[in-house]
Amino acid sequence: MISKNQTKFIQSLKLKKYRQKNSAFVVEGEKMVKELLMIYRQATSFVVEQIDAVYATKEWLAEEVALVNSCHDVLFEEVTKGELAKISQLKTPNKVVAVVRYLHSKNITPLVAPLQEHILVLDHIQDPGNLGTIIRIADWFGIKRLYCSTDCVDLFNAKVIQATMGSVFRIAPIYTNLELLLSQAQLQGIPVYGAMLGGEPIKKSVFKEYGLVVIGNEGGGIRTSLQTYLSHKITIPRLGEAESLNAAIATGIIYAIINL
Amino acid sequence: MISKNQTKFIQSLKLKKYRQKNSAFVVEGEKMVKELLMIYRQATSFVVEQIDAVYATKEWLAEEVALVNSCHDVLFEEVTKGELAKISQLKTPNKVVAVVRYLHSKNITPLVAPLQEHILVLDHIQDPGNLGTIIRIADWFGIKRLYCSTDCVDLFNAKVIQATMGSVFRIAPIYTNLELLLSQAQLQGIPVYGAMLGGEPIKKSVFKEYGLVVIGNEGGGIRTSLQTYLSHKITIPRLGEAESLNAAIATGIIYAIINL
């Protein structure tokens, strides 16, 4: 059972301004909600402050009875398929929708050399699928820190959350002023690698054990005001005719070459 | 101006059965249609048999007057934004939509060693964005041949076409029976590399100068009946916690490691 007010509230979370106003977002689908609950139970998420409620069909609640019983402080509400369709943002509504309050990412800690890893920095990534996939890549390669320019697509956009396949609960980007971040890195002598056309072929590049890796916007690449902070310009050589590589593919290739 | 019948015909092409019945598909958006016309003018596409018509706003026709004039045998029709919205499959209709007749991919030529490259083989890729992105990756790395199992998503699905960013006009997959294809390779002693969990770490793998690279389904990987034909099982080591990598990301990483 779900009230009209709750339905309206959940529907409002399709829009960034209401997500921000309420520090809330929606997680949908069996796989994602299961991952959410397991991470919440372990209290290990950087993102999840609290789960308001999980709205699920009778069928899902029966299937997941063990998980449901192990999450004492979570409110589970049984809903009909019709009710679910109203709150779902998917074309084919799944069996379960969770409403989550998020933690605000902490203030940016200054970068101090040496770092532990190659931190990922995203400049104006606009496509939700790309941001989600990039978070999943970071999680695959064990990257713990990720910065986004403030004009990147919102992390809590349903399509971003979906594309992370659960990785968002382990690694959430910090939205920040990249000029300040990169200038900090520069002061500390931390290498800043930027993926750019015309850079040095990535296999010839020598990577320090740590640094920042900057990935630019899908159409425009890394903005000019950030390019001055790059200590190394790197490129994935083109052997065929495609005009460009997708931003998430480039990220995957760069991290594979650095880390494997 | 566009007739009701034409509108209805173009709308029908949202469905695979009508695309197949008419050997026709739709190309949308400024960048994609421009690429289509340029490749068509050069008569170098493996995919485009004929362009039925290009429906464009007055604005687009004025902007692209040089291109329009250089394509003598293409019919350009001016349409209103309202008419465009009716034939568009995009949420935000663009300025231009083209209707294209496609060439049927030729019968599969037997594989004879030695090959010229690492041919890409896709087993049951279901997501249109993934297939499109993979075609773009192949085009980036100069891979000329690509095979798909017959249950892969349809190449002429609008989302696939869009995600290729024009690469589909240069490299189109051949849909075929992969059991037959891989058994041919086996008979010829052509190496067949398969991306699988638990395979050999890709950086430790030794790649011959040519071979087949098999990428499996998003959820299920390479189907069991094909696994027997793999001469090498390879894997991208996981350093973090994500459960899996997206199929297109895996493809990009594997081709980067083999080819760069």
How would you summarize this macromolecular structure in one to three sentences?
The structure is a homodimer of 260-residue chains. Chain A is of the alpha/beta class and 260 residues long.
Q: What does this molecule look like?
A:
With about 260 residues, chain A is of the alpha/beta class. Chain A has two domains: about 5-100, 60s Ribosomal Protein L30, Chain: A, CATH 3.30.1330; about 120-260, SPOUT methyltransferase, trefoil knot domain (Alpha/beta knot, 3-Layer(aba) Sandwich), CATH 3.40.1280. Helix content of chain A is about 35%, strand content about 20%. Chain A has eleven helices and ten strands. Chain A has helices at about 5-10, 15-20, 30-40, 60-65, 65-70, 80-85, 130-140, 160-165, 180-185, 225, 245-260, and strands at about 25-30, 50-55, 75-80, 95-100, 120, 145-150, 175, 190-200, 210-215, 230-235. A six-stranded parallel sheet of chain A has the order 7-6-5-9-8-10. In chain A, strands 1-4-2-3 form a four-stranded mixed sheet. In chain A, helix 7 packs parallel to helix 8. The longest helix of chain A is centred in the middle third of the chain and has 13 residues, at about 130-140. Chain A is elongated, with a radius of gyration of 20 Å. The N and C termini of chain A lie far apart (about 50 Å). The model of chain A has no long low-confidence stretch (mean pLDDT about 95). The interface of A and B includes residues 141, 244, 245 and 253 of A.
